[in-house]
Write a structure and sequence with these properties.
Helix content: over 70%
Number of helices: 3
Order of helices and strands: HHH
């Protein structure tokens, strides 16, 4: 429907509607009133027909435009491009899903790494404490070893002194025993000599 006809019909309907909304109609205007009603009815019918025709034309034009657009899209390979874009979008969705999955796995791995890092720090801390304690123990052990070495040296010295003393005592006893044996031997010889002399006489 042309815009001017549409506007004209709307204005005409407004005018007739205002006329009909008057409360009192003079007696001599009843025929005019009836005529106006007929005019309004005809006007509404015309307007309805115009609207219907306009809708039909609009639908027809839209359908023709759709067919033409479809032909243009098909001839230009736009449908294939759209399909390709759909495939690309689907691939992108898969990539995004994979990316999200990888991010989740990375987050889990990162969390595990943080836990391991924390445990490693705790282990290092405990190890440092143990190392300090080991250093103290090592110093104590070195001190004890030094004392043991000193004690061993003293014991070795004592043992040498004791061994020397024992050796001296043994040698002295041996010398005394030797002297005693020599003495006994001499006495025995004397006795034998006396015995032989006595026997001869």
């Amino acid at each position: 429907m042309p815009a001017e006809d549409h506007k004209q019909k709307v204005e005409q309907i407004k005018h007739l509607k205002m006329f009909l909304t008057q409360i009192d109609f003079p007696q001599d205007q009843i025929q005019l009133h009836q005529q106006k009603i007929k005019d309004i009815s005809k006007c509404l019918d015309d307007y309805k027909n115009l609207l219907f025709e306009h809708q039909v034309q609009t639908v027809k034009m839209n359908h023709e435009a759709f067919i033409e657009s479809k032909k243009t899209i098909q001839s230009n390979g736009l449908l294939q491009k759209i399909e390709d874009q759909k495939k690309q979008i689907e691939e992108l969705r898969k990539v995004c899903s994979l990316k999200l999955e990888l991010e989740k796995k990375f987050q889990i791995t990162f969390n595990d790494f943080q836990v391991s890092q924390k445990e490693l720090l705790e282990y290092k801390h405990k190890h440092s404490i143990l190392e300090i304690e080991n250093n103290f123990l090592k110093k104590d052990l070195e001190k004890t070893q030094k004392e043991l070495n000193q004690l061993k040296e003293k014991l070795d010295l004592k043992y040498e002194q004791y061994e020397q003393k024992i050796t001296n005592i043994y040698e002295k006893l041996h010398e005394e025993q030797k002297k005693e044996i020599d003495k006994l031997t001499n006495e025995n010889k004397k006795i034998l000599e006396i015995f032989y002399q006595t026997k001869k006489t």
